[in-house]
């Protein structure tokens, strides 16, 4: 019976996996050699929680209903997103309708878990083991037996807690976390019944954000002869070995996919988007929020954006997002001047240069150009990539200029890039080698095809044509 196993490596960069490190990753290399592989165009924006869910739904951000880690609730207050915000069916919902069992482990934005036809353990947004993090709840006992639960889901507490760890400590905790996570993967893969198994390793993302300048000589903050110059590569070699252990447990009918939600690119700095909007008189803050910002500045602290701090009676546009910028227009304020505002904002954003006056390769996307449901109230009017994401966006406050090297959440050595990895190998997969560039949304209908299931009519993107007419085991 056909099965699909999807091994997710968060943020795996194609150039490292397919080129620089390929020979050092024998298990991934073997899958590439026996099957097909591609650079995979990520979502706009290439945000972890959006991209993974686009992969397993066939939908874009507007159809998913998620654009960032925060959203504005009905009272105008800032809230953290969760699985409850997802508005589309995911693969396990569709598979359950056909009595197919799924095991889903650590998939971003799966907290809180919901009942599925199978097993689920939630992701790095999980606050603690006492939360709604497993289905069924009895799975918690297995997790407790693996080791310290305080960093089972992520290496540190909080959305960006890893940024506060020294790289030595981060590398150690990342490996310990991954070890626990892999042990559960192996246990359930071998001892439970399933048709589709998906797991996502978040450790790669955590290390890449912090370690990039230790090995990339083109980075403006490169550290020559760093003791951590091989830290990231060593983790990938370790992870490839663990993948090999998992592959040895799978039966011959299993198709294996190794994929990432996006790649990574060196981060040169951050563009303080709301500073720019205030300078251009698009954005105005409430008096209370301005006082909070000034009080934090005296303490040497930055202030995170919160929607309730925006004076909507005066504001024309405001910004959010990290790595990319999200620009939202206050339509009640601009009225019939909307198109003029969009034009002027786009022109200004494209002209932003770096801190040395160098022209950047900026990109500005209008919502109706990139989204199927651009009428979604959370949909940003403009999405901005500064210098092809080599410069990140910083929506926080407390800076005295357009440029900064950290946000209220901390500093980064690298940010998300526009393309991730896709590798597929199995008994019915054509060994086509490099197939170029694919769309991340194509993965969901491709998996349904592999499991011989119909593709729902609302998944309009086409599956990949990778199945052989006759079966011949390749892996």
Description:
The protein is α/β, with parallel strands linked by helices and 475 residues long. The protein has 2 domains: 3-264 and 417-450, Alkaline Phosphatase, subunit A (3-Layer(aba) Sandwich), CATH 3.40.720; 269-411, no CATH class. It is 29% helix and 20% strand. It contains 15 helices and 22 strands. The chain has helices at residues 14-20, 26-34, 48-55, 61-64, 91-97, 139-144, 167-191, 203-211, 231-247, 273-279, 287-298, 331-334, 338-350, 367-370, 443-450; strands at residues 3-9, 36-41, 70-72, 78-80, 102-105, 118-121, 134-135, 196-201, 254-259, 263-266, 269-272, 317-320, 325-329, 363-366, 382-385, 391-394, 403-404, 406-407, 410-411, 414-417, 419-425, 433-439. The chain has a 9-stranded mixed sheet with strand order 7-6-5-8-1-9-21-2-22, sandwiched between helices. It has a 4-stranded antiparallel sheet with strand order 12-13-15-14. Strands 16-11-17 form a 3-stranded mixed sheet. Mean pLDDT is 94; it is low at 470-475.
Short description:
It contains 15 helices and 22 strands.
Keywords:
single chain, 475 residues, alpha/beta, Alkaline Phosphatase, subunit A, 2 domains, nine-stranded mixed beta sheet, four-stranded antiparallel beta sheet, 15 helices, 20% strand, disordered C terminus
